[in-house]
Write a sequence for this structure.
């Protein structure tokens, strides 16, 4: 390039055309030089014995890497042809990462001499092209973990990689196009412990394909097209994932052999019945959610004494008879949400003694019973989206450990503070939240709640209370008393209330309050400084905010939502000044407007100024003159009266 420029400068037989040409050439060569920097490999980052060379557009490993490198990361480059040269003749590697390249050819027996290579990641390449040539990559003597995911491999192609891999423990074939697992697929890799075949199109598994793997403990067949499993006999398997297949039935082999299965995921299939699980099992985690199971019947009197977690949500269960729980003495989590259960009852104290979470949400549940001394460990109960109108009014008092109670979207009413037989002829018509010793969060939104009596939460240490979406809720002014030191979150959104009767400043721990979408015209006067940090008053009918309220809030308030209220501009100058001085954050400030008589449209509160609210000077002058005239007249009248009475006194004195 330099030589070319020199030549050009010789030619400078100064004509303007030549000068222009020269400038043009200079420009072109500059652009060219910046687009193609000198061919020096960009440096990899080398840390001790690890070389990080990802994302460098490399076609092979740089030649200048130190010999001692044991980990080579060449992921996300442009390697196409994997040979000894590509790896710069490094043979001491322990870990080689070639994820996301364009490899379509591997030099046969390339890995044979790599006696230390334990981890080989070939995921996201084009190894289907290589396998198509029916070439074998040769022995993988030391490799323990091999990732062949996302390579477009189809049935039989894995054979060219696995035929001689005696130490292989972990194998991933995820996201390929395998339709069948043949009997001898893994016959060259008998040490396998974990196989992932997630996201293929497996329809068929030949008998014995996995049986020969005596160390296999983890098998992931999720997201395939398997329709049925007839004779499950992998008794050493600990984790089995069959989620997202098309299974209609699952049968275990008839045997008394103890199975080691701990985690079994059968979610998102088409099961019509409870699976036929091994008789001698110690299963801990069973996910049957999103199937079509209509009733729970364990074929062959199987027990699940180790079962801790059972998810049967999104099925078509109509009943959940309590006797089935006698086979699940260790159950801690039960999810039967989104089924067709109308009634749920536990009366025997021996059942579900360890259960902590019960999720019965989104059922057409009409009746719920917990007898004396049942479910004593229960901490979370999800009952939202049911048809509950009546409950035994003391039902929650019997749950000594209940912390979270989700009752939204039902039809419940709250009892007066002291239900007695007199004022509650029918105690079933309401439910009490008095003295529930550990209850922290109560969700009662969308219940058509009509009233909240005084002291309804006495002796219940609530932190979170959601009363929103109960239009027309009539709240006693003392309904929240008892919560002075505990309540932190309060939501009363969309309750169609025009007056807030409770004095929220008495709730010393209250930090988050949502009063949006109501009909509030004013905020109550608060007796103390409040500790509220976030207050939502959006979409109400507020015209003025009392200065005393602002003062009560000012110390703690950090965030205020105020949009969609018919505020008066001049009636709220102190508040507006506070906003303009950024004392609080108003996330919806763009929608906060106020009404001013001189403007036909609402004015953004950011635009309001003091002078907008002082009338024009001429008017002031006239008022001053009128006031002065009035004063003069009053003084004159008083003076006249005064003189008159003195003269009368004189007259009297004269007479006397
Ligand atoms: C890969 O490289 C080897 C050795 O350089 C060469 O013989 C072979 O033809 C190349 N293969 C492909 C598919 O490019
Ligand atoms: C195999 O997978 C398991 C579980 O993911 C992991 O703990 C283990 O380290 C892996 N072994 C190798 C050699 O990669
Ligand atoms: C089973 O596989 C699915 C899909 O990959 C995954 O979402 C789920 O978490 C797995 N289940 C278990 C128990 O690991
Ligand atoms: C299950 O056990 C009961 C008695 O506990 C017995 O009557 C019934 O026949 C058994 N069912 C099966 C399928 O073994
Ligand atoms: C069922 O409930 C359990 C425990 O609460 C939860 O972890 C799981 O995600 C729920 N299942 C579904 C499908 O939502
Ligand atoms: C209860 O079930 C519902 C619906 O399946 C789910 O959204 C919710 O997360 C579950 N609760 C818990 C704590 O998992
Ligand atoms: C809301 O309250 C107003 C009167 O304050 C009433 O006219 C209206 O019907 C109520 N709306 C609902 C949904 O209860």
């Amino acid at each position: 390039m330099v030589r070319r420029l020199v030549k050009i400068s010789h030619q400078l037989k100064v004509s303007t055309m030549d000068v222009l040409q020269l400038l043009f050439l200079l420009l072109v060569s500059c652009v060219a030089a910046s687009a193609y920097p000198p061919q020096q490999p960009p440096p990899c980052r080398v840390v001790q014995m690890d070389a990080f060379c990802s994302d460098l557009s490399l076609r092979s490993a740089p030649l200048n890497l130190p010999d001692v490198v044991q980990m080579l990361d060449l992921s996300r480059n442009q390697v196409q042809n994997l040979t000894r040269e590509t790896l710069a003749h490094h043979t001491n590697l322990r870990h080689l990462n070639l994820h996301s390249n364009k490899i379509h050819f591997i030099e046969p027996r390339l890995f044979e001499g790599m006696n230390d290579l334990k981890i080989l990641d070939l995921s996201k390449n084009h190894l289907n092209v290589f396998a198509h040539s029916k070439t074998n990559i040769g022995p993988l003597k030391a490799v323990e973990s091999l990732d062949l995911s996302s390579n477009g491999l189809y049935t039989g192609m894995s054979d060219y990689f696995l035929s001689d891999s005696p130490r292989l423990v972990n194998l991933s074939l995820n996201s390929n196009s395998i339709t069948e697992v043949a009997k001898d697929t893994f016959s060259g890799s008998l040490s396998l412990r974990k196989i992932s075949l997630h996201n293929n199109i497996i329809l068929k598994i030949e008998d014995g394909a996995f049986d020969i793997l005596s160390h296999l403990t983890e098998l992931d067949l999720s997201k395939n097209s398997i329709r049925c499993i007839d004779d499950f006999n992998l008794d050493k398997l600990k984790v089995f994932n069959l989620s997202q297949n098309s299974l209609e039935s699952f049968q275990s082999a008839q045997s008394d052999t103890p199975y080691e299965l701990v985690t079994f995921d059968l979610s998102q299939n088409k099961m019509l019945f409870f699976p036929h699980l091994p008789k001698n099992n110690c299963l801990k985690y069973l996910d049957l959610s999103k199937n079509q199971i209509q009733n729970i019947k364990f074929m062959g009197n199987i027990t699940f004494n180790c079962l801790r977690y059972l998810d049967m949500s999104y099925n078509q269960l109509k009943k959940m008879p309590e006797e089935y729980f006698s086979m699940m003495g260790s159950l801690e989590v039960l999810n039967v949400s989104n089924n067709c259960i109308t009634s749920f009852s536990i009366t025997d104290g021996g059942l579900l003694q360890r259960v902590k979470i019960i999720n019965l949400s989104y059922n057409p549940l009409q009746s719920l019973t917990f007898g004396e001394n049942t479910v004593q460990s229960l901490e979370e109960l999800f009952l939202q989206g049911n048809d509950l109108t009546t409950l035994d009014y003391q039902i929650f008092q019997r749950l000594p450990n209940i912390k979270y109670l989700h009752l939204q979207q039902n039809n419940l009413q709250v009892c007066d503070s002291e239900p007695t037989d007199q004022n509650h002829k029918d105690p079933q018509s309401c439910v009490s939240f008095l003295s529930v010793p550990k209850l922290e969060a109560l969700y009662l939104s969308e219940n058509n709640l009509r009233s909240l009596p005084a002291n309804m939460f006495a002796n219940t240490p609530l932190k979170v209370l959601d009363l929103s979406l109960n239009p027309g809720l009539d709240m006693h002014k003392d309904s929240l008393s008892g919560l002075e030191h505990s309540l932190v979150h309060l939501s009363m959104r969309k309750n169609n209330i025009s007056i807030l009767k409770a004095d929220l400043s008495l709730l010393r721990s209250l930090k988050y309050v949502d009063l949006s979408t109501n009909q509030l015209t004013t905020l109550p006067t608060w007796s103390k400084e409040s500790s509220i940090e976030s207050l939502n008053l959006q979409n109400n009918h507020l015209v003025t905010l009392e200065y005393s309220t602002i003062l009560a809030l000012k110390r703690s308030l950090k965030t205020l939502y105020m949009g969609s209220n018919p505020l008066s501009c001049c009636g709220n100058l102190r508040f507006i000044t506070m906003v303009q001085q950024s004392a609080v954050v108003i996330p919806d400030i763009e929608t906060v407007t106020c009404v001013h008589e001189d403007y036909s449209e609402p004015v953004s509160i950011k635009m309001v100024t003091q002078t907008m609210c002082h009338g024009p000077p001429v008017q002031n002058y006239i008022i001053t003159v009128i006031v002065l005239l009035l004063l003069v007249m009053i003084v004159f009248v008083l003076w006249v009266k005064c003189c008159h009475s003195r003269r009368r006194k004189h007259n009297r004195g004269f007479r006397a």
About this structure: The chain has four domains: 44-215, 226-385, 388-512, 520-622. Confidence is low (pLDDT under 50) at residues 1-17, 22-38, 651-656.
